[in-house]
Structure formats: C-alpha cells, structure tokens
Amino acid sequence: MAHDCPSRSVKESPVSLKWTDTEEGRLLCISGPWTLQQARPDSEEVFGGLAGLAAGARLELDTQGVSAYDASLVSLLFAVVRKARERGLEVDYRARSQEGVSRLLQLALCVPEDKSRAERERERDFFSRVGEATIEKYDAFLDVMHFVGEAVLSVGRLLRGRAIFRKQDLWTTVQGCGSEALPIVSLISVLIGMIFAFVGKAQLDAFGASIYVADLVAIAMVREMGCVMTAIIMSGRTGAAFAAQIGSMKVNQEVDALVTFGFKPFDFLVLPRMLALILMLPLLTIYSNIVGIVGGLLVSWLSGIPALVYYHQTVARLDLTQMSLGVIKSVAFGIVIAGAGCLRGMQCGNSSTAVGMATTRAVVTSITAIIVIDSLFAVLFTVLDI
Amino acid sequence: MEMIEEAPQIEVRNLTMAYGSKVIMKDLNFSIEKGEIFAIMGGSGCGKSTLLRHLIGLNEPARGEVLYHGESFTRAPQDRRAQIMRGFGVLYQSGALWSALTLAENVAMPLEEYTDLRASEIAELVRYKLALVGLSGFESYYPADISGGMKKRAAFARAMALDPEVLFFDEPSAGLDPITSRRLDELIVQISESMDRTVVLVTHELASLLSIAKRAIFLDVTTKTQAVIGDPRELKERSDLPQVREFLNRGDGPVPCSS
C-alpha cells in the first residue's frame, strides 16, 4: 500500500514535518514555505525520527507539499540523508521530491566526504602531544641555527663579491631604516631625556646637587637608553616590516620565483636588509644620544640651570669609552632585529594570517633578544669595570 | 653511422611525493623528450602543481628521482642544481611577479644578472617579450596596478626572459579571456616548434590541452598514481579508463555523480 502524506490542517504552523511508518521503513513528509526567514524544527529533533529504524530499512522523502524553499530546506535534508546513510538505511530522495530539491541534494551528495582529514585531527594521547611539541621546538632551534649558518655563508659570498642582490634594494632599505626613522627616534629620545631630567632633578634637588642631572642624563642616554630605545623603535618599525615584506613575498611565491631563476633568496632578501640595519642602527643611536641629552638640557634650563653649565658638565662626564658602549651594543641589536625580522619572514606560512603572525613573532623575538643581550652586556661591562 | 641514443630531456623515475607522512602521488614514471609539449592533467587537488614543484626542484621527492639529460637532478650537488635550474623558465599559478619591481624590471632582472648584454639591448628584449604577451605599453606598471590576467601574462614574459631550455607553466590560461588564452597557446606552440624548446604545462583548460599538448599524463586522485600517458586527443576517444575519457570529454552527458 502506498503511503501518502497526511493533509495539513489550516491551524498548524506554516512549516510542517511529519514522519509516517511504511512497510519498508519510514516516510518523511515536508510541506510549507521553507526559507531562512522561517522558524524551522531543530535538526537534532528531526534526526529523532530515524530512531528505531534498522539497517537496510527504507527512508523516503516527500517534499511535494513544499510551497517555497531555499538552502534551509536542502541543508536539513542533506543532513538527514547523511545521517540515514550512516545508519545503513536505504534513502530515496528522488521519487516524491520536487525536481529542484532532489537535484540540489544529488549535487551535494555527489562527492563523498573526505574522511582522511577527520582521521588526522583525531585526539592524540599525552605522550604524542609532548613528543610533537618537543620535535617542533627542536625544529625551531634547527631553523635558527640554519639561518645563522646561512647568514655566515652569505656574508662570506658578499666579501668574495659573489653575493647577488640589487644594490638599489640596499639603498632603499638604508633610507627606510635610516632617514625615514629620524622623526620617531627624535620624538622618543627627546622625551626620554626630558623624563630622566625631571625625575633626576626632583631627587638630586634634595641634596642640592641638581647640576648632576647633566651627568645622570648623559650616562643614562649613552650607555643604555639611547641604544635600547632606538633598537625597540626599530624592531617595531623596521623588523616588523622586514618580516611582513619577506612573508608576503613567500605567500605570493615570489621567493620561489627567485629560486627558480637561480638567485639565492638569502643573498637577495636578507643580506641587504641586514647590512642596511647594521649600518644605520649605530648612527641612529648616536643621534638618539645627542637628542636625549638636548632633551635633558631643555628641562634643566627651564628649571634654572644655565645651558652652558649643563653643557660643560655633560662634556666633562662623558668620554669616548662611555660613548662607544651604546654604539657597540647597537651593532649587536641591529644584527638581532634584522635577523629576527628576516628569519620570521622566511619561516612564514602560506596565508595572510601567517604574515601577520610572522610580523608579531619578529617583534616579540627581537625585543626579547634586545633586553637579554643588553643585560649580558651589563654583566660584561661590570666585569670589565667599564 | 651509428645513432647515439640521446637521453630524454626530463625523466622521472619511481617518483613518490609526500607532505610529511601524507602521500600525494606514488610511483610516477615518465619521460619528456626535447621539443615536446607535455601536459600534466588530473582533478583539482590531485598534486599536479606539486609534481611541477618536484620537477623544478622546489620540493624534494620522498622516493625516486628526476633526471635531466640522463643526469640526476635530485642527487646533484647544490651548485650543479642551480646551474641546471638556470635552464628553466617557470610560470607560477599566481604569477609570482616581484611586487617591488615594474613589469619591465621583472623581465629584465634575470637578463641583467645572467647575461652581459648592454642596457639598451636588455630594454629592447624586454619590450619584445612584453609585446609577445600583449603587454606593450605596460612596461613601467607595477604588478599591483594590473589585473590578474595581465599579471599572468607578464609572468609568462618573465618565464621566457632567458630563452630557457624548458618552460614550466602552471595553469597558463586560467583567468584569461578566450582570445588571449588562444594567443598564449599559439605562443607556446611557436616557442616549442620553431625554437625547439620543451614545454611542460599543468592545465585544466581542455581546449588548450587538446589543441597544443602532444602528450599528457593523467594523475588519478583515487589510486594516487599515474593512470595513463598518451596523446590527449586519442585518450579522449579511446582511453580504456572511464575517468580519463570522462575528464577529457568534460563529463558530457548526464551530470557525472557516483551517488
């Protein structure tokens, strides 16, 4: 006996879904306007209708009573058919369906689900997770070592005149991390100098030794603040830019294109950037020192210390050794910032999210390294009694 | 006179490609003769572009090797590899133009680095190569200023910059209008026939596949190995494998579906 869908009474909700038992299994009758704007039953509730059907039973779908439909209907039916097939039911969605619905369903069901992916993402036990994390860390360490090795080889090629890169790239980078950084370095340095002068003066006034503000500002700037602040500014400004540039070149396969033309990406991309920053960071540091001292002078002058006195006090306090400490450190910072930027760029994955991550990691790596290196230098200088 | 049998331009022996432990394709064996237009075909995601990356040395085989003129490229030392690679011209799927350089500079850079030509000669070559792909007048544009199809054509010109022995094209006509794609097909045929260059192309474009490729390899995503090699026109009519016939006939007839 053929089973028909029960006729619908007028009072019911416009969307209706009914299960009817048949000899071979069950019939799902759907009618009414099924659109995304219409409230529809919960999928889990609908799946409940499959309960009690044994494998091999037959499930029929009837959508002849549907007055309007969009993806909201087809997606529900798609889920039902999949669920039913998982349970080993035989599904007939064609015989009693509107042509459009059954064709869309057929297209969606056409290519079976790729199970390999789900399998790969299945839960792993504690030991494999620890193992994987360890291997990952070890690989990251190898990456850094590999990068350092490449850098040494690349500098070797540069000295033998065999490194190929565009000279123009070097000069544009020099400009980018040199003169173009002057405004921000000026602002930060003058403010740091002023802050030190304010704070120092408040303390030294208590001892009637306010003239020593000049010593305090000068030593703080040339030994620590000048080089560290410049390095931090440059890691945010230039190191991040390096990572983003190289990272997006990787995403866009531009790095691959270099390789296939026989160019060494390291020489081509990393070398000019490293050279430029190692060249410019010490210069910027010297500039920052001077601007910082001027900042201190401004504050002191406004609070009554004659500029000339401040100047003589500063000159008397500084000597070449003091002034060279910050500059020496800035060379190390330059290597670290450019290295971190380029390394993270070269490690970048294949998406725009990866570029953002590379940039963040470049900044985090270089700022951490700057502080660590600075403290190592502090220990070294103390031991050497400089 | 005794004929000396020449080794094929490219030979792939027992190549297995994998990303980590996930095997993409296994046991690939084929060779490509000099001057041939050879196509790599197969459904999307089956590893066509990956195979191309193996042929040009950007990916390392999990097993097996790639040989050029009978010499192992896979096992060659770095410097020798770089030397062999200089004989390649590669068009990437995305174009991969160097975004910091103008179109003219993109084409000129390999010439500047690897030839002793004067600047004026290079400029002339660059203008000619860009004209071949229909980009006359766009010399000073940056890649960001032009459309996707134009980028592809500019990248095509760059791939030809050094008149390489072997040209690798990854989807050369994807995203191009039919007229332009036809012109590029003609250009590929001319390069191969009149200049005796080898062309390896990955393509979905049936029209160009059937009209220009002399031989093609079909990669089967379900068995993860090569299904068949042959003249695509013959395969279209007479292949024993339904999936190959279906692919080449665009699955004409009722919508192909396994369910």
Question: Which features would summarize this protein structure in a list?
Answer:
A: 386 residues, Transcription Regulator spoIIAA, 4-stranded mixed β-sheet, B: 259 residues, Rossmann fold, 6-stranded mixed β-sheet, 9 helices, 24% strand, globular, AAA+_ATPase (chain B), Phospholipid/cholesterol/gamma-HCH transport system ATP-binding protein (chain B), nucleotide-binding (chain B)
Alpha-carbon Rg of chain B, integer: 19 Å
Shape of chain A: elongated
Q: What is the quaternary state of this protein? A: heterodimer
- Strand residue percentage of chain A: 5-15%
Care to describe what's here?
- The complex is a heterodimer of chains A (386) and B (259).
- Chain A has 386 residues and is of the alpha/beta class.
- Chain A folds into 2 domains: 16-113, 2-Layer Sandwich (Transcription Regulator spoIIAA); 160-384, no CATH class.
- Chain A has helices at residues 43-47, 71-86, 99-110, 115-120, 126-159, 167-176, 182-205, 213-251, 254-260, 265-302, 307-317, 320-346, 352-384, and strands at 16-21, 25-34, 58-69, 90-96.
- In chain A, strands 1-2-3-4 form a 4-stranded mixed sheet.
- In chain A, strand 2, helix 1 (43-47) and strand 3 form a beta-alpha-beta unit.
- Chain A is elongated.
- Chain A starts with 15 loop residues before the first strand and ends with a helix.
- Chain B is of the alpha/beta class.
- Helix content of chain B is 36%, strand content 24%.
- A 6-stranded mixed sheet of chain B has the order 6-7-8-3-9-10, sandwiched between helices.
- In chain B, a hairpin with a 4-residue loop joins strand 9 (215-220) and strand 10.
- Classes of the chains: A alpha/beta (386), B alpha/beta (259).
- The interface between A and B is medium-sized, with 23 and 27 residues.
List the helices and strands and how they pair.
The complex is a heterodimer of chains A (386) and B (259).
Chain A: E1 16-21, E2 25-34, H1 43-47, E3 58-69, H2 71-86, E4 90-96, H3 99-110, H4 115-120, H5 126-159, H6 167-176, H7 182-205, H8 213-251, H9 254-260, H10 265-302, H11 307-317, H12 320-346, H13 352-384
Parallel strand pairs in A: 2-3, 3-4
Antiparallel strand pairs in A: 1-2
Helix pairs in contact in A: 2-3, 5-10, 6-10, 7-8, 7-10, 8-10, 8-11, 8-12, 8-13, 10-11, 10-12, 12-13
Chain B: E1 10-19, E2 22-32, E3 37-42, H1 48-55, E4 63-68, E5 71-72, H2 78-85, E6 88-91, H3 103-114, H4 119-132, H5 148-159, E7 166-170, H6 178-195, E8 198-202, H7 206-212, E9 215-220, E10 225-230, H8 232-238, H9 242-248
Parallel strand pairs in B: 3-8, 3-9, 6-7, 7-8
Antiparallel strand pairs in B: 1-2, 1-4, 4-5, 9-10
